[in-house]
Write a sequence for this structure.
């Protein structure tokens, strides 16, 4: 029994059907962690990208070193760091939040790169036209640069969304009850690992296909030109 | 009485070790139509880009309508211009680019109205009406809802002209406006610029390799060489009877090429 749901071991099929609701509980946690992590990665990545592009070296340099460090170290280390070190400084977060933060932090180093490439791909002439029309730098960024950069970065960001989803099982080491962790507990208690693990594999494939399809749809729906932030 | 709207006074522009403008003196009168010609790298674009505040200057003073462009007076001293000063000065100038530089994600109408509405504070209604007038003027009535990529190069450049005019500049800068166009589309853009040249009050600075057109529309032609004006005069003087050997060589090369 897990989450108050009993399993039925009379046959493989009955077992699979009986543990599906249990695995789906885990799947909801996986999806929540994915989207929270992705959101953190999108916001933090934009901040990193802006800091790295700063004209002052004392700002851009530490931002560059920090993102490089994040990129070059395993997610698990960052997760342990946040989970075990932060509480020593009085910051105690639930395991789920800590995990989603770690995911977001790790991936912000990658999304920062995507933002940078997307923004730098905007032709110099666009900045010059905006200046000739006397736009402020803020308006140039929000009305000229971003609307042209966003459609370009969607495919790359979508790939990271799927990667984050596939990294969520790492959070099981800090006790987050995401889908794989749930499947493992079921296995531990029933001595049947094959069925829950296969089901997790299948559910993951469905989630990944849906996410990829969604990104592709978004990419095709947002026209490359004619896109306005309004 | 002379009424100088643009004045370059001993202006030097360097890119690192490269001197692009070398103690340039250059004046333009209000309403004057001036064409700049010269070999590649002689500093023609740089002159326009400095006026549009896309490029700063290394030495000297540039004035627009009697006020320094790249400097401002503070406590009785000339100091480097602040962004606020540049913003104030910039409204007097408009620029048409070789590569058009339209905003690809905005409709033709929004390309033209965005500046007047967001920068000049014009009402959306007025800006739209003005855009319709301008589009009519450049021969693109009924194209307002299209996006730049749906237009030919010649049409895009005419939108570029309308977009610059919508800001009601005193001075229009054209940097090789037809160089990126297929030959059969050059005429339609030159016709628009030619019509604009009829406007008495508008000052125009045009960099072009279209010598026949320059001859028709300009009051004065300046031949740039190595960051200086080597020779200038009315189109007739310069094209039929150039004094300098360099001018003759250049014209010969362009007219034969
Ligand atoms: N941002 C820059 N950095 C370094 N050098 C530059 C820069 N902009 C222009 N230059 C150099 O300055 C010189 C003059 O450039 P400019 O664009 O004014 O020439 P031009 O007369 O317009 O030539 P063209 O007919 O080829 O357009 C060229 O040698 C060019 O390479
Ligand atoms: Mg040039």
């Amino acid at each position: 029994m897990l989450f108050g749901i009993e399993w039925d071991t009379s046959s493989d099929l009955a077992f699979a059907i009986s543990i599906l609701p249990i695995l789906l509980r885990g799947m909801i946690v996986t999806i929540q962690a994915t989207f929270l992590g992705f959101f953190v990665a999108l916001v933090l990545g934009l901040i990193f990208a802006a800091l790295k592009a700063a004209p002052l070296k004392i700002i851009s340099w530490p931002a560059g070193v920090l993102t490089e460090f994040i990129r070059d170290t395993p997610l698990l280390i960052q997760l342990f760091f946040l989970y075990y070190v932060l509480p020593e400084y009085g910051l105690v977060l639930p395991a789920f939040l800590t995990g989603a933060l770690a995911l977001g932090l790790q991936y912000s180093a990658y999304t920062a790169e995507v933002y940078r490439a997307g923004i730098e791909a905007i032709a110099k002439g666009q900045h010059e036209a905006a200046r000739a029309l006397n736009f402020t730098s803020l308006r140039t960024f929000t009305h000229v640069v971003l609307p042209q950069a966003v459609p370009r970065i969607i495919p790359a960001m979508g790939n990271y969304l799927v990667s984050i989803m596939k990294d969520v099982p790492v959070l099981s080491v800090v006790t987050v009850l995401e889908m794989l962790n749930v499947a493992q507990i079921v296995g531990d208690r029933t001595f049947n690992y094959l069925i829950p693990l296969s089901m997790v594999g299948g559910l993951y494939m469905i989630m990944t296909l849906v996410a990829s399809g969604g990104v592709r749809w978004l990419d095709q729906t947002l026209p490359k030109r004619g896109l306005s932030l309004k | 009485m002379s009424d100088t709207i643009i004045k370059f006074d001993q202006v030097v522009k360097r890119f690192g070790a490269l001197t692009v403008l070398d103690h340039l003196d250059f004046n333009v009168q209000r309403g004057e139509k001036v064409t700049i010609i010269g070999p590649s790298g002689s500093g023609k674009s740089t002159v326009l880009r400095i006026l549009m505040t896309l490029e700063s200057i290394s030495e000297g003073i540039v004035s627009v309508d009697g006020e320094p462009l790249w400097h401002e007076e503070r406590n009785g001293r000339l100091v480097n211009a602040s962004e606020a000063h540049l913003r104030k000065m910039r409204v007097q100038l408009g620029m048409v680019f070789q590569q058009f530089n339209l905003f690809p994600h905005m409709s033709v109408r929004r390309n033209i109205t965005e500046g007047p509405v967001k920068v000049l504070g014009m009402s959306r209604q007025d800006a739209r009406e003005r855009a319709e007038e301008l589009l009519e003027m450049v021969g693109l009535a009924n194209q307002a809802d299209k996006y730049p990529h749906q237009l030919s190069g010649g049409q895009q450049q005419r939108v570029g002209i309308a977009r610059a005019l919508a800001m009601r500049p005193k001075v229009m800068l054209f940097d090789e406006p037809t160089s990126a166009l297929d030959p059969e589309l050059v005429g339609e853009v030159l016709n628009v610029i030619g019509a604009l040249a009829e406007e008495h009050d508008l000052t125009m600075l045009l960099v072009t390799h279209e010598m026949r057109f320059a001859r028709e529309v300009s009051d004065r032609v300046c031949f740039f060489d190595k960051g200086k004006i080597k020779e200038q005069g009315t189109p007739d003087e310069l094209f039929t009877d150039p004094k300098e050997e360099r001018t003759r060589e250049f014209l010969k090369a362009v007219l034969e090429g």
User: Anything to note?
Assistant: The pocket of magnesium ion (ligand 2) is lined by residues B 44-45 (CB under 6 Å).
